[in-house]
DNA sequence: CGGGCAAGACCGACCGGTCTCGCTCGTGGC
DNA sequence: GCCACGAGCGAGACCGGTCGGTCTTGCCCG
């Protein structure tokens, strides 16, 4: 193997995965057909199906790739470069988001998009939800590091801010990240134990249950 | 006309719209084909195309219908039934959301789903973003009623909470609405003018711009 | 020589969209 | 009051294109 050419002389499976990544990430899953995939990857159709049992298998592999290169672990690394304290690392998530949202080819979160595109009952939708839960679990660990109260409820609320800013950024809000950061700071204050908890006014909601870490909805 | 039968003896366009509504709302737009639509509506294909120029035109009509029967005006009505004060009406949004999320056939926000499914450059995606902006504009008016500061930034932040809870509810958080409500209360406190503004600690972010009402991203 | 490959023909199913049939029913001329 | 007409309709054949997926061919390289 000459190793020259471009970098295309890799394993066909790898060529397919790296070719399909931007297509799926930017345009979603259903809009990209097999023919376009193999054309972009420069791979024969038979070769594609030697390495992937079906398009669904490719989608699952894409989601895993997304999780590996642009998921929570990548985010935790970025966050660690920017802050040293546990609370600072939490808030730094939205500084990373600010750079992400500012990209002119901002493509939002593939897990959320696939969950909506294919539905929660589809295997790829289930996998997406699984990765989103993995993100939330890491938030739980960060919250524990920060010594916060009710880390599970905190992580769910944190996910609201992450998902909400991702969506409103796609809607067109250029300041979504900084807005979410302000809300995140308030959320941290709400979950700081004992000393100087919430000093702000929280109007009561009649018949308003607490809503702790409860979970699970049957797939539609 | 006997007027009996069922209630199906309406105008074909209306039959198509009411038949397609649950299909699009629950399964998205691309998953539902023309053949299934006309079969469900009990309408001939030629009749369908007499009333809709294309499937895209049907999607646009669906979005408009969604906006009319389940959009911001419906939400404002529900909210008015539950609260009298401006701040109470704002917070009541998440009480309505709590009931919405609890439905076993919860289908999330069609505007967000279509925006992600078709992309921001697609006409239907553009229309969806337009309806989302209309929602935000009504939040601005509610915020003005409540006498809050920076109503535009407030409305964007409020949309973060709405969109975020919608997404995390789809992920499986049964308490998304009450969590968002708590955050919303903190957001209102942040935007209450002068008297007793934020008493909580908001850690500084190095090089962190303010992020006011700026807006607009070019369609990808 | 043989396994993995690129190229691409081929498959049935379905896509969005057009067009041809009859049938029905409301309407206007008489 | 009657009837012929025509618009609108349901049913469905049909169109080219594309979908995901299979299979054949011939090449290249170990």
From TrEMBL, chains A, B:
This is HTH tetR-type domain-containing protein. PROSITE patterns: HTH_TETR_2. Pfam families: TetR_N (PF00440). Residues 207-220 have a biased composition (Basic and acidic residues). Keywords: DNA-binding. Residues 199-220 are annotated as: Disordered. InterPro entries: Homeodomain-like_sf (IPR009057), HTH-type_TetR-like_transc_reg (IPR050109), HTH_TetR (IPR001647), Tet_transcr_reg_TetR-rel_C_sf (IPR036271). Residues 10-70 form the HTH tetR-type domain. It comes from Arthrobacter mangrovi. Residues 33-52 bind DNA. SUPFAM superfamilies: Homeodomain-like (SSF46689), Tetracyclin repressor-like, C-terminal domain (SSF48498). Transmembrane segments: none annotated.
């Amino acid at each position: 193997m000459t190793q020259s050419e471009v970098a295309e002389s890799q394993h066909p499976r790898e060529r397919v995965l790296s070719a399909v990544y931007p297509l799926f990430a930017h345009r979603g899953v259903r809009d990209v057909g097999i023919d376009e995939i193999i054309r972009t990857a420069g791979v024969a159709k038979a070769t594609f199906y030697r390495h992937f049992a079906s398009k669904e298998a490719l989608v699952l592999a894409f989601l895993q790739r997304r999780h590996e290169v642009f998921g929570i672990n990548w985010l935790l690394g970025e966050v660690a470069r920017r802050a040293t304290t546990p609370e600072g690392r939490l808030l730094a998530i939205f500084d990373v988001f600010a750079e992400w949202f500012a990209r002119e080819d901002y493509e939002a979160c593939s897990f959320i998009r696939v969950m909506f595109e294919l539905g929660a009952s589809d295997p790829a939708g289930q996998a997406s939800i699984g990765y989103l839960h993995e993100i939330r679990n890491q938030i739980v660990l960060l919250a524990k590091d920060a010594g916060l109260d009710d880390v599970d409820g905190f992580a769910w609320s944190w996910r609201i801010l992450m998902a909400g800013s991702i969506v409103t950024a796609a809607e067109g809000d250029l300041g979504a990240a900084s807005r979410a950061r302000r809300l995140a700071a308030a959320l941290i204050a709400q979950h700081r134990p004992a000393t100087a908890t919430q000093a702000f006014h929280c109007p009561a909601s009649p018949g308003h249950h607490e809503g702790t870490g409860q979970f699970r909805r049957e797939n539609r």
